[in-house]
Design a protein that fits this description.
59 residues; mainly alpha; rod-shaped
Length: 59
């Protein structure tokens, strides 16, 4: 009797927590991917900008 009464309550308690963790993981992965994309774009923009200045100073 106790085991049957305990298991459903535990499941009900754990389900929302698990869902929150999954959503947090998905959000974190999406943020990381977006962050990496933005960093790459910033790096490309920074690389493209100093190139002409370097060549102009060299010549």
């Amino acid at each position: 009797m106790w085991a049957s009464s305990r298991s459903p309550s535990a499941k009900v308690r754990h389900q929302p927590v698990d869902r929150d963790l999954i959503t947090e993981k998905i959000d974190n992965t999406m943020r990381k991917e977006n962050f990496m994309k933005t960093m790459q774009e910033e790096d490309e923009s920074k690389r493209s900008i100093p190139k002409p200045t370097r060549t102009s100073t060299d010549f």
